[in-house]
Each structure stands twice: as structure tokens, then as C-alpha cells.
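Look over both lines:
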Amino acid sequence: MTDNAHESGPSSSSGGPPAAAGVPPGSRPQAADQPGRSRRPSRRTVVAGSAVVLAGAGAGVWWSASREDPADGVRAAADDLAAAWSQGRLGELDLVAGSGQLPADVPAEYARLTGGLADPPPAVTVAGLDTSAAGDGAATATLDVVFDLAAGHGGPEGSTFAYTTTARFRRTEGAEGERVWRAVWEPALVHPALASGATFVLDRELPTRADVLGRDGTPVVTATPVVRVGVQPSRTTDPVATANALGAALGIDAAALATRISQASPDAFVDVITLRRSDYEAQRGVLQPVPGAVFAEATLPLALTRGFARALLGTVGEATAEIVEQSGGRYAAGDLAGLSGIQRTYDERLAGRAGTVVRAEGGSDALSTELARFDAQPGQAVRTGLDVAVQQAADDTLATSPAPAALVAVDVATGEVVAAANFPVDGGDRALTGRFPPGSTFKVVTTLALLTGGLDPAETVPCPPTYTVEGRSFSNFEDEAFGDVPFRTDFARSCNTAFAGLSPRLADDDLPRAAAELGVGAEWAPGVDAFAGSVPVAESAVDLAAASFGQGRTLTSPLAMAVAAASVAAGELRRPTVVLDPAPAAPSAPATSADPALLATVGGLMRDVVTSGTATVLAGVPGEPVHAKTGTAEYGTAVPPATHAWTIGYQAGLAFAVFVTDGVSGGSVAAPLAAGFLGRLAAAGGYSGGS
């Protein structure tokens, strides 16, 4: 019978051993572990025919003929088996073979039987006991076994492979003559379907990866036909000549390829490059005749062009060993996974969940029996704020840059990032995560702080060749000096010494406060990794003077400075959003905007930069008037110091920031790129704005 109702009490079987010597008929000996009763010594010798009493432990529980219940210890043995299986410790149990001999390596045999389900182990619980044959030294336990396919094997949410199996137990003699209950090892213990010699097989059915969308819902990354170009070593008699031919056609390292070909097995597919189908067709006549070259068609999630917002959108490729290990079973070797950018950040959403099928396969029946099936969960799209026309204009502009560069464009009305371009396209995401001194573009922030303190733009503010604070001398770009001029002129022509001279009017925390009102250093929720900027509270007069024109300890990203320009254009704080769906959690800090009238004044001063200052190259751009601020930021310890070039600004509903590493100056390097960007966009129909 099944003993569910009295797990620790005596068996209800009518057959059992006679009462122990010295015990009156009708009474029973007290169990040593029964609550409220004294515990017997672990072992003692009783004269006059009494038995040896032994306390049980581990997987085998000692049984004593002095007790009335022959099933004593079965429950403990069953619980130990369930716990060991659940914890992946089956090999630690004192098992007995069902037939023949125990496997030399029980864990290895378990891994063979369970295949892809071997790790992590299932949750196993004891559902019931049958001790009706305990008097004959046999018992069974019903076990509920649950493999969590979602958490442990990457299956769809909520998918579990659950079943009931039977564990057999035998009463055997222990090392010192005691009697113990031991679990019987046999394939049927793992699952009844394995009794014939079959093993588990776990099949995964991968769903199609979802698209990444632009702000209007059209795909900017989607499944695209590609051709994998490779080499099969057995098909070429001259690996070096093959590698040289492919290297010349594809621009790859021929020597490294020749080495890989020579080290590969004869029939291997040595990957060379994966080309879009259109790119392959353009070179087909050159590639096809190369001895040993082989080709395989496939599809990959690709952006509209190779460089289209590449750092932001990221790439998809074969999952690395680290990704496989960290995926909780979602990925296996050879699977495609998000490797960087949005593809990595939102990988689980985009990839969906693999469907899983568990089968018992092989054995004497030579059949394949499906035991469980869960359909794949398709991925969900991620919608970004990217505008295709703006992004393409940004990409095309940076392709003409003389040095590594970044360009960010932000919608003034919404704060949505409509373009994030980097050059070179494989050089990292300096557009969103770069950390650079902003140079004179930060004068937009300083001017807002000064206006808040009462500065009149018409006020005369000297622009001397140098300005000294506590022994530290500051100068202008190329040692310029404009004399006693209105502040408006100092701003338009970017006079450092004028701003350093005005820094005593600022409190130590005025610049961080004004920066936050423009979104720099403020709390963001863009949906991707991005640097909002760092504007520390000034620690000295020298520190404050340097910070007033974007030097010292102040650091920003191109995105942060584009956000500052957008806030000026909007007349209120803008915080950037890169991913629109799923919507990122809103920033917890409340928005703090500057006085709109003061922001309008700053905007007017930025217009002067274009009409009569350092960015006159932007004056002829088609469309609405352009407002801008250039910047040249010193960095490093070289003498003279190296410089980065900046230009930020806005035109109608579009704000932008252009950054060029090691540029001579903002006006001569970054501003022409900004003009090229706006000109390309105008030629493509302009920017309509809005969400």
C-alpha cells in the first residue's frame, strides 16, 4: 500500500517481526526520534536475546529487528535521494545496482542518460511511499521530478518538463552488520521511458530575431540575406595563393588566413567573411574562381548599411563562450546572439525564447518518443528614436572627417535622439558614452549661470591676451585679444579670458546647477548606456576659472552637449531618449528648467556666433537660421597641449553636436562638418521634427 498518511509511524502491513524480547504483548518500543521521548544511545548491546539498535544517517538508514516497523528509515532514504538529485549529488549516495554492477561513474552515467538536461538538476520531491513489502526488504517511493526549462535551459517562460517516476529501495547489510535502506540505481529511476536503454534528447527551435525599428516604426535592423565566404582546405593545393587572392578581393589579412587554412581539417569551412548578398553579387565574378573558396547562404539581422548607427545598434553574431555561460541555457554554442549595443542590451527581448522539445530516443525499442513540447516565443521589436534620413546624413558627413569623430542629433520638441554617428564605425561609441572636456561649447552653460546672476549681454567685458588667477595664467586660442568689448562679442568670438575674468561672479556650485538646467550632468533615462556629463562643484578660484570655459575637471559627451543645445532651443530642459519602446523608466529626479527668457537670450547669443563669430561657415546653410557655439578643448600634458574640436547648435527643431578628436579648433574643423550635415539633410528634404 502507499504510505502517505503516516510517514514516521509504524507500517500498516499485517505482517511484521514479532515483539522484541522483554516487551509485553500489545506494546511497542518507543522510536528514538519521536518527539517528547528520550533518545536512545546510538548503539548498545542488550542481553537476553535483544537486538542491536543503530541510529540511521545519510542515504542508508539503519533498521533494527528490535522494532516493530520494518519500514523504519524508508522515508529518510527517499528524502535523501530526492535532495541529492535536486542538488546534483547523486554520485555521493550509497546506491545499490538494480542489476549487475553499479556504473563506475554514476554522475557520468546520469549525464549520458539525461543529455542536454543534465545540468542544472531538476527539483525532486517525494510524493508517496509504498512500504507494503518492507518486511521482505523492499520499498518504493513515488518522486515528482520537475526540470525548469525556462530558467535552466532557455525555454519559453513557464515551461517545465514535469513527470512522476518510481524509486526502488532495498534493505541491505551495512559495513558493520547493521541493516540499511539503499536507493536502487537504474535508468528507470531517471524516467520510466529510459528503462529500455533510451536517453533524453533536448531539441531547441530558435525563433526569428525581432527587428530594431526607427522612430516611425520602419525597421532599421532586420533579417537580411547574406553569403558566408569560406575556404575548404581540401579544395585548394596552394593555401597561400588562395589566401592572397581572397585578401586582395576582400581587404583582409591574407597571411593570417593562410595560417588558418593550413591548420584546419581538410573538409572544414574556414570562415573568411560574411557579405550582404548585394555586396557578394558585386564581387561574385572575382570570388567564385578562387581555388578552395566555398559559399553558404544565410540571413543575419543587419542595419540598413554597414555603418548605420553601428555603435548604438550593435551587432549580432555567434554567441561567445561567456554569453553562452551567462545565458541560463538560452544559448548554445553556434547560436546567434546580440554582441554589442542595443542588440546586446535588449538581447532577451529581441531574441525571444527558443522552443524546446524533450524526447526519449534510442534503446532496444529504437524509437523516438516525444515527452514534452513548448513552442518558441518570438522576439519583440525594440523601437528607437532614430530618423533614417538624419542618421544617413550624419553617417555620410562623418565619412569625410579628417579624424575620429562623433555626431549626435536630438529632436528639440521631444528630446529623442534621432541620429548617433561615429567615425570610424568600429571605433566605439564616443557619441553617447565618450568623456571629453567640452571646451568653449560649455560657455553656453556658463553664460546661463552669469545671466541668472544678472549679467547684461551688452555689458562691456574685457578680453585681454591673458588672465591670471592665483598664479595660474589663462589665454585665448592663438593668443587672440579683442580688448574692451560687449559680452555678446566675447561670446561670439569665444574669448576665454573674458569668461575667466567673469568667474568671480559665480558661486562654486553655479555651474553644476546651470548645467543640470540644460540637461548636462542631470539624471537621464535614455534606455541605453550614455554619459550625461560630470560638472563638479568648484574647489578653488582657479578651478572655477578653468571650468568657466569648459576646461579643468568638467567632462561631457557629444550627446550631453546636443542635449544642452536642445534645451536652449526648446526654452526648457530636455532629457534624451534613445529607446522609445520598451519605454525606459522615467528619471526619479524632478526636472529643473531655467528661466525661458534667459534661454532665449542664450539662443540669441548663439545666433551671433553664426553671423559674426567663430561659426560663420554655418551662415549659408539652407533653411531656417542656425544657432551654434564652437569649442576647442585642450587635453593631455603635451606642450602645446593637444586639442579636440567641437560645434554644437540647432536649426529649427533639430539640435546637434559635432565632436572631432585632435581637431585644431571648433571653427575650422567641427563647424564645417556641422554645415555639411545640415546641407545633406536639407538636400534630402529637411527635418520635419515631431514624434
